[in-house]
Input
Amino acid sequence: MKKEFVVRSIDSAPDGAPYVIVSLSSVKDLKEGASSAPSTFGAPKVMGFTNMNDMMKDLNKMFSGMGGLGMQSGVTQLKLEMHEYKEMGLSVGDKVYLELTKEETLGI
Output
């Protein structure tokens, strides 16, 4: 499987270790986001509930809207060592491809 992404942000390691966190957004998500109306000044979205059952059903949606490392919805994050990052020469806005393959094992 091969997917196309755009580099959304590049952040240093939160613990000061020699690696970076590269955040990627899928090209499909970016195109959908561009067609919808942008939110004013990046204001957070507020979810309304009419009863407690609705709130419990949508609890995961509420938590996915919280910012922070690994909590952003629609964002794939990679941890790259500094030498990998420098070799690739990545910058925000670059298109990248991720390819996932499954190792074939013969019942050994």
Q: What stands out?
A: Residues 27-35 form the longest helix (9 residues). DSSP finds four helices and four strands in the chain. Residues 2-38+45-99 form one domain.
